[in-house]
Amino acid sequence: MINQFRKLNPVNLVFLLAYTFFLRIAIFQETHDQLNFDFLEPFARLLINIDLDHTFTPYTNIFIAALLVYVQALIFNRVVNNHNLLTKPSFLPGLMFITGTSLFMPFMILSPALLCNFLLIWIIDKFLKLGKSANSITTIFDIGMIIGVGTLIYFPFMAMLIMIFLALLLFRSFNWREWVAGLIGFITVFFFLAVFYYWNDNLSSFYQIWRPLANKFPSVFKINYNDYLVLIPVTVIMILASLQLRENFFRSFISTRKSFQLLFFMFIIAAASFYLKPDFRTWHFLLCVPPGSVLLAYYFSNAKKRWFYETLFVLFVLSIQYFLFV
Description:
Shape: globular
Largest sheet: none
Oligomer: single chain
Order of helices and strands: HHHHHHHHHHHHHH
Structural class: mainly alpha
Number of strands: 0
């Protein structure tokens, strides 16, 4: 299967779509209560009042989520190939993206984090272009606005602001205008939100939006480890990928090295940002899928022993299906 997706063959578009629904057999077979879909954060409802909470039936919700994941996988695949992050263009990034978004049941329904992945893929593309442009002020401003829009959808997405400064450190020499541009872009979005709050004589509530920023990072976690056993094969593949990346690190182009460093930091920040949402759900970690998928794809793109990497991937997929059904 891996060998098939190592080729940039149009027929893989059909295989990817079939694979997307194959991984969702378990959730389609379950009996579901009403699945709520919070399209926006409560504080943004004043700006855009669209009620989608109970619009879709459970199966429609799951079906639309699957189609969105498929579209995201194709966009993500193109971004990774355009920036030459792997040895050669392939459908492996899309394959790993779909696999990553199928690890847990909560990943397979409509959620704010799923929508934010469109924005995350967009800013990954813009970040990777930073080292190739002479003047990046406009790009950084755009990234700041995209993060602002993402924050309206899902508040912890605001943590991606840190990525602006890390990307500038990695790809650009210091220019204070670029460092300020991202913040101005982000503030622009919330300036318009503040104006709406002011017009509605509710400015005091606007200040409450920022209260989660004062949350302390939790020191105690309540975890049911049985729910996360499926992450064992993911961890094994990521360790193998890291060893392979380390072996090829200094043989790669400087831009490629910096890109993987950027994606590593993005993975960490996406995972750690859960503390900005006191009632966060498992689907929060969908934000880790795009950067994590690149590392998984890197391993399968560079692995040499076919019997080993094909078997490893089959075991990976079977473990996902097993833990979804039990």
